[in-house]
Amino acid sequence: MKKYLALFDIVFYVVLPLVIWHGGRDLIGDYYAMLLSSVPGILYSVYRFIKVKKLNTLGIFLLGSLVIGSVIDVLSGSALQLLWNQVYYNFFLAGLFLLTILIKKPLSLYFGLDVIELQGVPREPLRKVFFKRKFYIVFVLLTAAFILRYIIGNLFQIHFINEYGVDAFDELIVVKQILGWVTSGAMVLGFLYIGKLIKEDTDARNVFQESHLMKNKESEPEQ
Q1: Three-class SS string for the chain?
Q2: Domain range summary for the chain, segments of one domain joined by +
Q3: CB atoms within 10 A of CB 130
Q4: Band of the pLDDT at 93, cuts 50, 70, 90?
Q5: pTM of the full predicted structure?
Q6: pLDDT of 28-73, one tens digit each?
């Protein structure tokens, strides 16, 4: 599946929502067509979440934002209000990420711990390593990338709503997906750089080496 991840993203987050939106507007109205168009993306996101099979900081954030976003959409009452509520919610998320920087617990650092923990590396020793200044600054920048994503996305959304009203939905689907890819690209580059720092850091190398030794011991047959 990883091989076709980008293709699945396009199909479930762009193609199917646009097809449902255009096919459903005349039949069920703008608001319900907009709600229905989000279903493929929600189901696909839940499927990807289940595949991870672990509830961690990243999983809680993704599932929580999915549930809250869906509830806000359902309670909006009209297509136009739904679009405006998305703007307000995105500003809230940007504020949440900013708060984690201000309290010196950047959310992307915990996302990074989640990803590496899934590879069998113990979380607590690595957390201490990631709070070293050279690692910490990278995670702050990655968290800032999420903030920029929400703010830039909102600027586009506000402009399109004011210009086109609910007809802006087409452009917004594409813009959001592009911003999502850009943020994902920034995360990949950031984690590649983190990987480089890990190789250069003695404490980080020790954590990975100890993890590797433990896995080897566990895989050895009992005498």
Answers
A1: CHHHHHHHHHHHHHHHHHHHHHHHHHHHCHHHHHHHHCHHHHHHHHHHHHHHCCCCHHHHHHHHHHHHHHHHHHHCCCHHHHHHHHHHHHHHHHHHHHHHHHCCCCHHHHHHHHHHHCCCCCHHHHHHHHCCHHHHHHHHHHHHHHHHHHHHHHHHHHHHHHHHHHHHHHHHHHHHHHHHHHHHHHHHHHHHHHHHHHHHCHHHHHHHHHHHHHHHHHHCCCC
A2: 2-218
A3: 22
A4: very high
A5: 0.75
A6: 877 778 778 878 877 877 777 676 555 577 777 877 787 788 888 8
